[in-house]
Every structure is written in structure tokens, then in C-alpha cells.
Design goal:
The complex is a heterodimer.
Chain A lengths: L1 H20 L28 E2 L5 E2 L6 E6 L12 H10 L4 E3 L4 E3 L2 E6 L5 E6 L13 H12 L16 H5 L10 E5 L2 E5 L7 H4 L10 H7 L17 E7 L3 E6 L13 E6 L3 H9 L5 E4 L4 H6 L4 E14 L9 H10 L2 H9 L3 E2 L16 H5 L9 H15 L8 E7 L2 H18 L2 E7 L1 H9 L5 E7 L6 H4 L16 H12 L3 H17 L3 E13 L3 E2 L2 E2 L6 E2 L4 E2 L1
Parallel strand pairs in A: 3-12, 16-17, 16-18
Antiparallel strand pairs in A: 1-2, 4-5, 6-7, 7-9, 8-9, 10-11, 11-12, 13-19, 14-18, 14-19, 15-19, 20-23, 21-22
Helix pairs in contact in A: 9-12, 16-17
Chain B lengths: L1 H28 L14 H10 L6 H13 L14 H36 L4 H15 L2 H24 L14 H31 L2 H8 L4 H29 L3 H6 L6 H9 L3 H29 L8
Helix pairs in contact in B: 1-12, 4-5, 4-7, 4-9, 5-7, 6-7, 7-9, 8-9, 9-12, 11-12
Classes of the chains: A alpha+beta, B mainly alpha.
Chain lengths: ~575, ~325
């Protein structure tokens, strides 16, 4: 009996020990011990010591390390596309132009000029260097853009470069790369020859795809390796990659050869790879991150901890895209009825809790003629806003044209990608259309790739989707609806739209051009080629010690160029 | 014995080959291309050029032959969605982390689960038995992301925050996320191991109760053998058999990475790659992982079968 009791006690003790200590039984050890990162919570009482690679504690004088998070391991290849990169790339490589505090300013080019019809642009480069000490030269652009197009380097989206003369021909192997419209006149003079007038070229080239890369370095490490490891990457921007542990942490340090290095106020950026947004918020609340994006549900928690929350306009418009070969949707009035039946305020306030109702396709904040934004010049362009009576009237008209009378004869399926946002919004639209119009609406969600493939094969009735600005110009949104655009998924074909858009493309009067684009937008929306719903917005918060963080509607969405640690 | 192992390995190669073939054709049957995931308006012409750059415009059987040939040469190709890193490089970097986390979770889960099961069986109907039921229900029914969120918030943010304030220190007792040192592994391994604890506790309890009622246990008691010896030598050892069977499957599942836990705690493991590669139609990555996982799982099954002989002398491998 005695031994029995002993045994029980022993087992119970062991059991509780296993539970309390939990994973102490783990095998394998980790090198070093990551110290907790500096604590800046609430009071703004900053302390030093930040966790470095493998827990090596780095105490940097004056706390000039900024800690940010990205959701996935970034890509630093020549073509540089991907969400993460939209943040980090702006820190590493610089374009000929860049965004300043609000306006477009000079980047690696100290000046540039163009010919009268905006088809030839000449850039004069600054004295600046790659972080390995090599100078920035015109050949960097000739090399990088040529290598992407001729297949030497990876390129996931060639269409972005097609404004350059012969880019399309080089990509499809009809012409040699030597005929490409990018030329180095001398070491510091770079010339772009374009296929058509591009008045917004200085905006377009802020996109990483138009950045240069050093030829010698690329050939030395092998083009196929570029951007896959820290040692296979170089930078000509304010920072370079000092170390990179995949899926974990990238440490960016100041590029000593960067022309404007004296005006960069931070010494180091730690970029953590944190896939989960809720985790990012917890790390932010614990002082381990300086900037965080979050969903509206976390707003009170973040404000409760003493931070100011803000919303930035991330330059994205959500809209319904119709298949105009559908039996019901081919009728203009049915499409207008759908637009009138949707209460955009209700979607924004009741479902999203962020963003604003759309009054056009081009989102607020997108550039216009250089003085005013597009929406400021064009104004409200939404012809069929929320009006249930009007919607019913339009539907009745459309149905009679189709030879139908009962709204419940109409049955459509909304296809949406399976993200939280679109699942919620498509459900709301389903409800609004069924209640206000009495038509049958089904919702189908699928993943992004399958959705795009189905959309491009026209296997859908209505697609709920959103489009964000890749470059800061309305053509980015409207170009897709030109009749010969190879990616016009809506099957929207309208001669008046084409003429107006074409005129805008060749217009060299900046304000006139925007007005023409506004007119094209009005035609698209009057015909309900698409139905804009809302402009998205994103909540974010910044730690109290960091000032001068900029959020933008186009890349880079997060800009630390002017950031200062206090 | 040697013949048996050789036979099993040959069989394993066939299995892996079959899995690879099925996955290859299924993967290509899903609508979408690796290049239609991120870009909304790529023109058909550009897509064509890209498809031919990667040889994806060729007939499927040719792609298959090329893929198998490359695999036999040990070349898994480059991932199309991860900055063009090579697939084997990604697996070699991320797998050890997943395996580390998985083994911690498994060791914790196995020890805690088995002990809890034994205790519950020995004290059937007593509080510890109820405790084991509660733990099992939580472990099985509460999804790991909920447990993860709860522990991350309560221990990582709440308790550790209080600790720092109370002791005026920077020391983070339970880090919120990331994978840096032993402290960082505590919450994720615990959360990941909870499923194992739950499953094994129930299984062990049932199995133990079955054994406790056996005649040889009564015989042993009547011979006056100490309780400790009865429990360890007669009961536990016999009750372990079904547990070992399940364990084989669990090793495969746990060690190859958890999408949810790794993403929630920002652990640089392999878990997310399989899910993401399928969403991104990253054919090379999906295939590489499939081959890798099937090798791993087939081998762990083999290992379990061999372990039977060690644990239970009655099991003998015959021709």
C-alpha cells in the first residue's frame, strides 16, 4: 500500500511537472537568447536594446532602429512584384524619380527633360553609388530592363514595360534587345524612347519594375540568384540588406554611398516576417514593432494602449465586373439597376468600417495634372447611385427589353475571391440586390488564381474585385477597357470610350488629358461597363517614438524615407 | 528481417512515385497558372511568353517526363512564387525549424498524454479522470489558432507585460511570437502539442482500462508484485501498442509543419509553403514538398512497424 501511494504521488507530480513546464522536454537548443525588443508601450518611455540576429543584442546610440513587419518573405528580383516588396523595395532600390513628402521629386536622376510629344525622356543621373561602392550609371537601367525583357532575368509581368519602344517586340522575340528604347548616352545620361506619349512617365518609373540593377554584380553572382539571399542583393537606395534570415528577419543598414544619406535620419530597419496580422498587433502593443496595419476590430485595443490610430487611403477601388455576354447582364438597364440598388454607404459603414463609398472608378488620391488630383478635377462621376425606386424602374425597363416581366426570373451568380473582405461584401450585395430588386442572386467564392482564370475565360456572371494603382495615373484603371486591351475581362466595347481614351492618351495638355480621362470614365460608368462600390482604406498605427512615417496610395505603401526616431 | 526492410523500401519507392504522379496531374488539373495569381491584367500574349519560358506550354506528358528526369537528378527546380529561390533550398532551410517545433510538441504531447491517460485509467471516475476528459475535449475541439490566440494574448501580452511592469525589467517571460531561443518555443510547442495530448490521453486511458481487467494483471497482483512493477511492466507496456500505431501517423503530421501555428507565431517553418504553393499554383514547390513529405511519411511508417518488434516481443517479422 505504501508503495502504491508513493507511486501515485510520484506520477501526479510528474504529470503536473510535465504540464507546468510544458515543453521543457524539447530537444535541440537554440544559439543565443533573443533579448526582448525595446519597450515603447504607451508612455513613450523608450528604452534601448533591440533584438538582433540570433538574439545578439545591439544597442544603437539614440535608438535609431525602426522595426516593421511584412507578411511574407520578400522578393528582390529585378522585376520586384509582391506585396511585401511594395514596402521594402522603396528602402532598398531607388528609381529615377521618387515620392517626396507628398509630391513627386527627383530620385537618382537630378534632372530630366522630355521632347514635345512626351515620347523621349532624358534623365541626368546623380553621383550616387550601390552599396558595394560601384557608381550608379545609365547602363544599370539599360541592363536591367533589357535582361528582364529578353529572358535573361525573371520577369513576371511584362505588360508594365510595354510603353518603352520595342519592349513588346523584344519580349515576344521579334526584335533583339539592342533595339530596345532604353539607351545610355553616356555614363550619367539615360534616354528612354517610348512607343507612345506618356505624360505621366515620371510617375510610372517610381514602380520598382523600372529600376536599374548593376550589370557587373549581377553577372558575377549569377542573374538567377539575384535577390534570393543577402549576399546576392545590392542596393542603390538609402538602405541595403545587411542580413536576411528567410521567413524571419531582414536587417537593413544605411547605404554609405547613397547620395542623400545625410538626410536619412534612421540607421537601421529591422524587417520582421510576421504572416499573421493579429500577431503583428500584439507585437506592436508589446513595443516590438513601430508600425502596424490592423483590422478595425483592433482599433479600441490599440487606442486603449495609448496609441493614435489612423486610416490611409491605399489607392484601391472595389467594383463589380460584368460578363456582358450573360443573358441578363447584356442589358444596360439591368446593369444600371444593379448599380442603383446598392447602398454603398451601408457597405462601407456596416460591413467594412473603413474606406469610403466610390464616386467613380479612379480612387481618391490618385494623381491628376500635377497640381490637383484626378478626383478633384473630375469630381463625382457615378451616374447610378443608391436609389431603390430608380433601381426598380430601371430593372422593369431592362426586363421588358429582354422580353421578361418577373424580376425573379433573373438569376445571377456573383463570383468573389475567398478573402474576408470579399466574402462579407459579396454577401451584403447579394442581400441588397435580392431585397431591392427581387432578383435571384447567388454567391460563389474561390481562390484568387482560379477566379482570375475563370474571369479571363468569361466563365462568370459578375465578379466582385478590386484594383489598386500600380502607377499614379488614371490610365492604370481605364486602360483595361479599351477594345484592343488584351485583358478587358468585362467584354466592354464602346466606340465613344475608345475614341475618348485614345484622345487622352495622345493629349499632351496635362489638364485637358485628365478631363478626357474623366470623360472616358463617365462613359464607362454611364454604360455600367463596371459598377464601382467603394474605395478601400487601411487602419494603421505608429509607435510614439517614430515620426515622419508616410503612407501612400501607390508603392511604396509605407515610406520610412523621412522617418525620425525621437 | 533484412529482406523485409529491403522489400518495404522498394515498396516505399513505388508509393512515393505513385503519390508524385497523382499530385503532378491533379495539380495541373486545377484551373489557374502560376502567373495568374498576382497580376490582374496580364495580357494573353505575355502569359504565353511566360508559359513558354517555363516550358508550361508543352504537352503535360512531356512536362511530366521532364519533371521526373529532373527529380532523379536531384533537381527540384525553382519556386515560382518565392522570389525564385530553389525548392530544395527552401525545404532545407525551413524543414529543420518545423521539425524542431514538431518534435518539441510531440515529446511534450506524448509524455503528457500518456501520463494523463495512465493516471485517468488508474483513478477511473476520480478528479484526474475528469481532468483528462476536459483536456481531451479542449485539445480536440478547440482549434489551435484559438488556443494560440488565447495563450499569445494571456501569457505573451498580459502576463509578460505585468511581469515587466512589476519587476521593472525588459525580460519578456513568454515572447509573443518569433523563433529565437528556448523561451520562444514554449507557447507554440505547447499549443501544437495539445492535440497530441488529447488524442493520446483518451487512447491510453481506454487501452489501459482494457489491460487492467486482463487475467495476467490479476495473476501478477496475486503473486504480490509491487504496484509500480505491475503498472509499468504489465499494464503500460501492453497498453502502449495502439499508442505506438497512432504515434507513427502523428510524427508525420506534426513534424512536417503546421500552417496555423507557424503563421500565428511567425515561425520560419515549412508549414505555410504547401498551402501557399497550392494557392499560388507554384507547381515546382507543391511537387517538391509532396515528394519530400511522402518520403518522410513513408519512412516514419516503416520506423513504426519496426518499433513494434522492439516493444512487443510477440510481434515477429516473418517471411
Amino acid at each position: 500500500m505504501k508503495s502504491n501511494r508513493f507511486w501515485k504521488k510520484g506520477l501526479a507530480l510528474l504529470l503536473s511537472a510535465t504540464f507546468t513546464l510544458g515543453t521543457l522536454a524539447g530537444c535541440g537548443t537554440y544559439e543565443g537568447d533573443g533579448s526582448s525588443a525595446s519597450n515603447v508601450q504607451g508612455s513613450g518611455n523608450t528604452q534601448q536594446a533591440a533584438a538582433g540576429v540570433n538574439g545578439e543584442v545591439q544597442t544603437v546610440d539614440g535608438n535609431k532602429i525602426v522595426k516593421i513587419a511584412i507578411a511574407s518573405d520578400p522578393e528582390f528580383t529585378f522585376d520586384a512584384i509582391g506585396d511585401s516588396l511594395m514596402v521594402t523595395n522603396g528602402l532598398l532600390r531607388e528609381g529615377l524619380t521618387r515620392y517626396g513628402d507628398g509630391v513627386l521629386t527627383d530620385g537618382l536622376a537630378e534632372s530630366y527633360e522630355h521632347n514635345d510629344d512626351y515620347t523621349k525622356w532624358t534623365f541626368h543621373l546623380r553621383e550616387s553609388g550601390w552599396n558595394n561602392g560601384e557608381p550608379v550609371t545609365a547602363d544599370d537601367w539599360v541592363y536591367a530592363i533589357g535582361a528582364m525583357l529578353d529572358g535573361t532575368a525573371q520577369l513576371s509581368f511584362a505588360d508594365f514595360l510595354y510603353e518603352i519602344k520595342n519592349a513588346r517586340e523584344v519580349y515576344t522575340k521579334q526584335k533583339d534587345v539592342s533595339e530596345l528604347g532604353v539607351k545610355a548616352i553616356d555614363e550619367k545620361t539615360l534616354e528612354f524612347e517610348l512607343a507612345y506619349p506618356v505624360t505621366y512617365f515620371p510617375y510610372l518609373i517610381t514602380h520598382p519594375m523600372h529600376f536599374g540593377y548593376d550589370r557587373e554584380f549581377s553577372e558575377k553572382v549569377g542573374v538567377e540568384n539575384i535577390g534570393t539571399e543577402a549576399q546576392y542583393s545590392i542596393s542603390n537606395g538609402p538602405f541595403y540588406i545587411d542580413s536576411w534570415e528567410h521567413d524571419n528577419l531582414l536587417v537593413f543598414k544605411k547605404n554609405p554611398y547613397y547620395w542623400n544619406k545625410d538626410n536619412i535620419k534612421i540607421d537601421q530597419v529591422n524587417v520582421y516576417v510576421i504572416p499573421n496580422q493579429a500577431t503583428q498587433v500584439n507585437l506592436f502593443l508589446n513595443g516590438e514593432l513601430d508600425v502596424v496595419d490592423f483590422a478595425y476590430q483592433r482599433q479600441s485595443a490599440i487606442e486603449g494602449a495609448g496609441f493614435t490610430t489612423q486610416v490611409y487611403n491605399n489607392g484601391r477601388t472595389a467594383y463589380l465586373n460584368y460578363n456582358e455576354s450573360n443573358a441578363f447582364l447584356k442589358n444596360k438597364h439591368v446593369r444600371q439597376a444593379i448599380s442603383s440598388a446598392i447602398d454603398r454607404e451601408a457597405i462601407v459603414n456596416g460591413v467594412l468600417h473603413v474606406g469610403s463609398p466610390a464616386d467613380g472608378l479612379i480612387p481618391v488620391g490618385l494623381a491628376g495634372d500635377g497640381k490637383k488630383s484626378f478626383r478633384e478635377i473630375v469630381g463625382n462621376n457615378l451616374p447610378y447611385s443608391h436609389n431603390v425606386d430608380k433601381a426598380k424602374e430601371l430593372l422593369a425597363q431592362g426586363l421588358s427589353e429582354l422580353g421578361l416581366s418577373d424580376p425573379s426570373d433573373v438569376s445571377i451568380t456573383i463570383l468573389a475571391s475567398n478573402t474576408d473582405e470579399f466574402i462579407a461584401v459579396s454577401g451584403a450585395i447579394q442581400q441588397l440586390l435580392q431585397e431591392n430588386l427581387g432578383i435571384k442572386v447567388e454567391v460563389e467564392t474561390t481562390d484568387g488564381s482560379a477566379l482570375r482564370t475563370r474571369r479571363n475565360a468569361y466563365e462568370y456572371d459578375v465578379v466582385l474585385q478590386s484594383w489598386g494603382a500600380d502607377w499614379d495615373d488614371a490610365t492604370n484603371f481605364l486602360g483595361g477597357y479599351e477594345h484592343d486591351a488584351s485583358a478587358n475581362p468585362a467584354l466592354f466595347i464602346n466606340e465613344e470610350f475608345n475614341d475618348t481614351y485614345h484622345k487622352a492618351t495622345y493629349s499632351t495638355d496635362l489638364t485637358e488629358r485628365i478631363k478626357l480621362l474623366g470623360k472616358a470614365e463617365a462613359i464607362l460608368l454611364e454604360e455600367e461597363g463596371i459598377t464601382p462600390l467603394y474605395y478601400t482604406g487601411q487602419y494603421y498605427a505608429v509607435s510614439n517614438r517614430l515620426k515622419g512615417v508616410l503612407r501612400r496610395a501607390v508603392v511604396p505603401y509605407l515610406d520610412l524615407y523621412f522617418a525620425e526616431v525621437q | 528481417m533484412r529482406n523485409y526492410i529491403i522489400k518495404r523500401i522498394l515498396l516505399a519507392i513505388v508509393t512515393i512515385f505513385v503519390v508524385m504522379t497523382i499530385t503532378f496531374f491533379m495539380m495541373h488539373a486545377i484551373p489557374g497558372t502560376p502567373f495568374s495569381t498576382g497580376n490582374d491584367t496580364m495580357s494573353a500574349e505575355s502569359l504565353e511568353v511566360l508559359m513558354s519560358r517555363y516550358g508550361l506550354d508543352q504537352p503535360l506528358y512531356k512536362q511530366y517526363v521532364r519533371y521526373v528526369t529532373n527529380i532523379l537528378k536531384g533537381d527540384f527546380g525553382v519556386s515560382m512564387s518565392n522570389g525564385y529561390r530553389s525548392v530544395s533550398d527552401i525545404i532545407l532551410t525551413a524543414f529543420p525549424v518545423s521539425a524542431d517545433l514538431g518534435l518539441r510538441a510531440l515529446i511534450f504531447g506524448t509524455i503528457a498524454g500518456i501520463l494523463l491517460g495512465i493516471e485517468a485509467a488508474l483513478h477511473r471516475g476520480k478528479p484526474v479522470d475528469h481532468l483528462s476528459t476536459i483536456v481531451a475535449i479542449i485539445g480536440i475541439s478547440v482549434p489551435s489558432f484559438v488556443l494560440g490566440t488565447v495563450f499569445q494574448t494571456i501569457l505573451g501580452l498580459g502576463f509578460s507585460g505585468w511581469f515587466k511592469a512589476a519587476f521593472h525589467t525588459d525580460f519578456q517571460v513568454f515572447p509573443i511570437a518569433r523563433w529565437q531561443s528556448f523561451r520562444y518555443t514554449l507557447i507554440p510547442s505547447f499549443v501544437l502539442g495539445m492535440g497530441t495530448v488529447a488524442g493520446l490521453a483518451r487512447l491510453m486511458r481506454t487501452s489501459m482500462l482494457d489491460v487492467i481487467g486482463q487475467d495476467y494483471v490479476k495473476t501478477a497482483k496475486s503473486k504480490g508484485i509491487s504496484n509500480l512493477a505491475i503498472v509499468w511492466k504489465h499494464e503500460v507496456r501492453n497498453a502502449m501498442m495502439p499508442v505506438v500505431t497512432v504515434l507513427g501517423r502523428m510524427i508525420g503530421g506534426v513534424v512536417t509543419g503546421s500552417y496555423i501555428i507557424e503563421s500565428q507565431f511567425a515561425i520560419p517553418g515549412l508549414g505555410k509553403y504547401l498551402v501557399n504553393s497550392i494557392t499560388a499554383r507554384d507547381y515546382t514547390m507543391t511537387m517538391g514538398l509532396t515528394v519530400f513529405y511522402s518520403i518522410f511519411i513513408v519512412l516514419s511508417m516503416l520506423l513504426v512497424d519496426l518499433m513494434y518488434c522492439v516493444i512487443d516481443p510477440r510481434v515477429r517479422i516473418t517471411k
